[in-house]
Amino acid sequence: MVITELLERNARLQGTNVALVEINPSEERDRAVTWEDFNLIESANPDAPYRREMTWADFDRRANRFANLLLSRGLKKGDRVAILLMNCIEWLPIYFGILKAGCLAVPMNYRYSSDEIKYCLDLADVDVLVFGQEFISRMDAISDQIPDVKMLFYVGHDGPAYTEDCTHLMSFCSSSAPPVELNEEDHAAIYFSSGTTGFPKAILHNHLSLISSCRTEQNHHSQAKDDVFLCIPPLYHTGAKMHWFGSLLSGSRAVLLRAVKPEWIIRTISEEKCTIVWLLVPWAQDILDAIDSGRVDISKYRLGQLRLMHIGAQPVPPSLINRWLKVFPHHQYDTNYGLSESIGPGCVHLGVENVHKVGAIGKAGYLWETKIVDEAGAPVACGDVGELAVKGPGVMLCYYKNPEASAEVLRDGWLFTGDMAKEDEDGFIYLVDRKKDVIITGGENLYPIQIEDFLRSHDKIKDVAVIGLPDERLGEIAAAIIEIKEGETCSEAEIAEFCLELPRYKRPRKIIFEKVPRNPTGKIEKPLLRERYCGGRLVEAQTTK
Q1: N or C: more exposed end of the chain, with fewer CB within 10 A?
Q2: How many CB atoms lie within 10 A of CB 264?
Q3: What is this structure's pTM?
Q4: The CATH number of the domain covering residues in 307-434
C-alpha cells in the first residue's frame, strides 16, 4: 500500500466528512484567500478568525487535479516538485497531488532566504516550484537564477509575471485519479535537514517510509475517527505532517492553526473541539505562563475533550511536563523522538502509559529498533553514554547527491543519529546531548542538556541554552544563555548561587541574559549562539517588560 490509497479510501468511505480546517486569526486577515469553493466562514465579530474547511472528497479531487496538471505539462514519474507555502488548506492537496503524479514532493522551509531557496532547488534538482504570496520578494530576487526549474506555479491572486496561476490551471484538469502506478519502493519525497549547522542536506525517502509513519503514529496515539488533531507546527517539516498521518489513517479531522499565541491555541482547542495537540516546548511554556499570569482563563473554554498533549522535535524539560500535568491533570502526555532522516517522530517514544518516566525519550517505537553504541559501534553497558542508532522502515534511503555524508550515518541498515544517549535499567532511553554539542572542559565531558534541565527548574527562567566557548586553560567552558520570564529580574549572582547544587565542573562559567533563539521546529540554534557569543559579553541583569 502507498499513502495516496489512504486518501482515496477516506474520500470513498466518508467523502462528506470534514478532513481539514484552516483557522486564520484576525491579525492575518490580509492574506489572499484561494480556492474559493471551500467553505469560508466570516463572522460579524471582528475578533473572529477566517475559517475554511475541506471534506475528504474535496481533498482527493484537488489532489487529483494538481496531479493531472503536472502530468499535462509533461512531468513524469520521478520528477521533483517543491512546495514553498505557509501552513494553509492548499498545502496537503498539493503534496498529495505531487505523489499521485508519481513525482517527488520537496517541502521547503518557509524561513529560507532567497539564497537558501536557490540552494535547495538546485540540490534537489527541482523541476517545478509551487509558492505563495509570502515569498514573492524572495522569489523576485532569484527568479532569473534558477533555469533548471521549468515551471513556477503561484497559489493566490495576482501572482508575479514569471509565474502561472495554479488555481486557474487546475480548474481545467480532471478530478479523476491519474493513471500512475505506485509501489512502496518508489521514491516519494525529499526533505531537508534543519540547517542549524550550515546549509541543509537533502533527505530522500520512499513510499514505504511514508506509509510506515502512518502506522507508527496511529499505533502510538490511537487516533480514532472522532478525534480532532490540532496541527500548529509547519507542514514542510516531517514532524507535523507525520503526526497528521495518524489522522489520515483514522479518517479523522485536523485543524491547521496559523497562530502560536496561547490565546489562539486555547480558543481553537475549545471551539474546534480538539482532542489531540502537538506542541513545541516554547508554546507549552507560553501557554502555562499565560494561564499563571491570568491572561488566559481556562475556565472560560471547553477543554474537557482534550485527551492528549504530546511534544517532540527537541529535548523536553521534565519540569515543564510536571507543571503542565498540574494544570491539566486529566491529560495524557507523550514524548516523541525522531529525525527527518527517520521520517520524523516515532522511532522512539515515551508512551502515554509511562508518564512516570518523563525526562526519557522512551523506548523503540512501533516497527523500530534501537541501540546505543560506542565509537567502535559496540553496544555500551546499561547507564553508559553512547551514540543512539535506530533501524526501521522509515530510515531514509540516503542524503541525495551526498554519498559521503550518507556513508557516515547509514551502516548496515542502522541510522546513526548523532545523539548521545544512555539507557536505564528499565530500558528507557535518555538523551544526553548532540554528539557535536558535547563540551570538553579540563578533560571532562559536559552534556549541555543536563545543565539546561537543571537551570529550567529555576522559577525565573523561561528558556536556556548551554554552549561551549573556547578557553585557553580548560579548552572549553560552559556558557549559559538564559531567557528570563516576563516581568522578572535576575542577576548573575543569583544564578551562580542556584548552581551551587551542581558539581563544580558542571557549573556554567559564563552567564548571558538574552532571548534563546529557536528554529521553526523548536530546536535551539546553537551554531548561531556560538557564532554570536564566542566573544560575547556578560550581562549583569535583565528585566523584560
Answers
A1: C
A2: 19
A3: 0.82
A4: 2.30.38.10
